[in-house]
Design goal:
263 residues, mainly alpha, Multidrug-efflux Transporter Regulator, Chain: A, Domain 2, two-stranded antiparallel sheet, 13 helices
């Protein structure tokens, strides 16, 4: 007859594990000798080895009991079912690892790959990281609130980069954070934006009609609150008869005149 420590040694487990298997009912409690110590036989060693083998293979302890008591066919079916569950869990963990790897790059947090690629393209053009971060934050809002718009807008943005005006605009915006609000280059930015607005509105590409008003205001705030220069750009555009940033609209002539007069 064996003591608990000898039983554990034969099966390659700890005494603590043996006691745990007793507590959850996997290993029946043995009789005790005249000194009150547990006394195990060879059958207990065999059962403990089987328990340890199954658990070490990844079988949940809650399923070990049914496998120990199963017929050969039931055992095979049970093992196959557990294997399928493990495969599913492995796929989930692998997907999580891929996601973690993407998150390590920073940009992938809450952004689809197409947006990340576009932001990287801006960096490749020499656009300052501060402006890239500003645009990234706006895209995070769009991806969360209007994901159905992302791919079409991104495709158009890539197309826009063929436009010399757009390339010049990005180069100007690249260090706009360092400008005073009255920097004369602000007018050049407004000129470029107005030319693009005229083309965009005429082509029906910049109306933002599928986005609700509060969200449009939020996106506009991301840009306008970025710097005093940004606020001045919007002010000049309004004086020229344009309203908004995400959803571009013509300001009625009377209102444009009032804005120009400071009313």
């Amino acid at each position: 007859m064996l003591t608990i420590s000898r039983l554990a040694a034969y099966a390659g487990v700890t005494v603590r594990a043996v006691r745990h298997y007793h507590q959850i009912g996997l290993l029946p409690e043995p009789g005790r000798d005249h000194s009150g110590y547990r006394s195990y036989d060879a059958a207990a060693v065999v059962r403990l080895i089987r328990i340890h083998t199954l658990a070490d293979a990844g079988v949940p302890l809650a399923r070990v009991q049914e496998l120990l008591e199963a017929s050969p066919d039931e055992f095979a079916a049970g093992v196959q079912a557990i294997d399928q569950e493990l495969r599913t869990e492995i796929r989930r963990l692998q997907a999580n690892r891929r996601r973690i790897a993407r998150l390590a790059a920073g940009e992938h947090l809450a952004l689809p790959q197409s947006v990340v690629d576009y932001l990287d393209r801006l960096r490749g053009l020499g656009v300052d990281e501060r402006y890239v971060v500003l645009e990234r934050d706006a895209w995070i809002l769009v991806a969360a609130q209007a994901p159905q718009l992302v791919e079409a807008v991104i495709a158009r943005k890539h197309e826009d980069l063929r436009d010399p005006d757009m390339l010049r605009l990005y180069r100007l915006l690249s260090d706009v954070s360092d400008w005073p609000a009255d920097d004369p280059r602000v007018v050049e930015i407004v000129d470029i934006l107005e030319r693009r607005m005229v083309r965009g509105v005429g082509a029906g590409e910049m109306d933002g009609g599928s986005v609700d008003d509060p969200f449009v205001e939020l996106l506009d705030a991301v840009m306008v609150e970025a710097s005093p220069v940004a606020r001045r750009i919007v002010t000049i555009l309004e004086r020229r008869g344009w309203k908004g940033w995400t959803r571009i609209e013509r300001v009625p002539a009377e209102r444009a005149a009032q804005i120009a007069q400071g009313n």
